[in-house]
Amino acid sequence: HLMPGGYAREWADDDVTAGALFDRQMTVNRLGSQGPLNDDPGRSIAAWLKARFPQFRPRRILELGCTVGHNLLPFAELYPDAELHGIDVAAPCLRYAHARADALGVAAHFTQADAEGTRFEDGSFDLVFSRITECRRLLRPGGLCFHSDAPSFDELEPYVASLRDWDIRCNNEPFMDGWYDMPVEQLFVAAGFDPATRFR
Questions:
Q1: 76-115 burial string, b = 16+ CB within 10 Å, else e?
Q2: Is 184 exposed, middle or buried (0-12, 13-18, 19+ CB in 10 A)?
Q3: Backbone phi and psi for residue 46, each to the nearest 5 degrees, phi listed first
Q4: For 61-114, how does the pLDDT look when each residue is reduced to its tens digit (9 = 90+)?
Q5: What is the DSSP annotation of 8-49?
């Protein structure tokens, strides 16, 4: 999102600049609408899952592409016995995520890794969630995979879709057009997910 230097740029040893910029720009750009900790999306996702699957008790939770942990840390409140893990490719964001979690008193593990090669063992998580990545290999039997992003164009009124289209072109979202054109449900089936257990 037009971040100066990108999310992974390191200006010095042990740099946290990109993480700090990301955290603050979320407040500024969203006009504080995501709460004082910028974690309303994570809180909403966790609360929705808890309400939708009340018997679900994950022991290990993984977020792919966690940036600074805004969406991951709220899971500690609803699933206090779960072990939280977040991965991202951007080291400065992960350093900031560690410091942020410590400051908030939340135990979480952050690892620099690409979601396409996490090095975690097969079936090592009960819940894997992200913003647009695939994670079937990592799920334990009976686990949940949850992906969230902006609504697809087929769910939007034309005016709202035009605003989203503007965002794609003017807020440095070069891959969003391709994402909206992809047959996502079919891709999950091709990846081995049972279509009978899919929900949107």
A1: beebeebbbbbbbebbbbbbbbbebbeeeebebebeebeb
A2: middle
A3: -60, -45
A4: 999 999 999 999 999 999 999 999 999 999 999 999 999 999 999 999 999 999
A5: S--SSTT--HHHHHHHHHHHHHTTTTTTTTT-HHHHHHHHHH
What's the whole-model pTM score?
0.86
Q: Alpha-carbon distance 151 to 70, whole Å?
A: 20
Backbone angle region of 92, left / alpha / beta, with phi > 0 → left and psi within -120 to 50 → alpha = alpha
Low-confidence ranges of the chain (pLDDT < 70): 1-2, 131-134, 150-151
Are the C-beta atoms of residues 74 and 42 closer than 8 Å to each other? yes
DSSP states along 64-130: ES-TTSTTTTTHHHH-TTSEEEEEES-HHHHHHHHHHHHHHT---EEEE-BTTB--PPTT-EEEEEE
Residue type at position 191: A
**DSSP string covering 154-166:** GGS-HHHHHHHHH
